[in-house]
Amino acid sequence: MNKKLIAMTLINASIMGCATLSKEECLQGDWKSIGYRDGTHGYDLTRLEQHQKACTDYHVTPDINAYQAGRDEGLLVYCTPSNGFDLGEQVKDYNNICPPYLESAFLEQYEQGLQAAYRFNEQDLEKQEDARHDQTNLLYHLEDKDKLNKVKEEMQKIDSTIERLRDKKREITRLLEKVNHTRQ
Fold this sequence. Notes:
This protein has 184 residues and is an all-alpha fold. The protein has 2 domains: 21-78, no CATH class; 81-184. It has 8 helices and no strands. It has helices at 3-18, 23-28, 31-40, 46-55, 64-78, 81-89, 100-139, 145-183. The longest helix has 40 residues, at 100-139. The radius of gyration is 24 Å and the shape is elongated.
């Protein structure tokens, strides 16, 4: 294969990978179902703009009313308190998309889920810091270079995990602050 053909294939693959809808979905035009799916996944209305761009090549224009009706139904599934807890526990962001009459209960459980994630993260962080301390103590008692190198490698893995857990802690804290700001 020549270089031009490979480049074109990669460009086409990257363009197709960015599309929110397939050609078939655009042509089928079941905008209520597409809106429902987007609502159940918690997408905001910018998702419709992305769909519109994806369908432009096929000369398809979304049915905005059908999409919105489906999305509104999907939000009833997304904006449940149990889903709020799950999203919080998974440390997923919330984009203020729930209708006001559902948002309060959703946010209450979302916050509870974030707090649970924070507690689990703190426990994991403490375990990793203890493991790091244990590995550091081992360094002072080893003389074999191979064993020393293995301990150093293990310490690097632990350090990486600690940094990931600290990043997660910062993200949870940011999301908790965002919830408190949303409630005000």
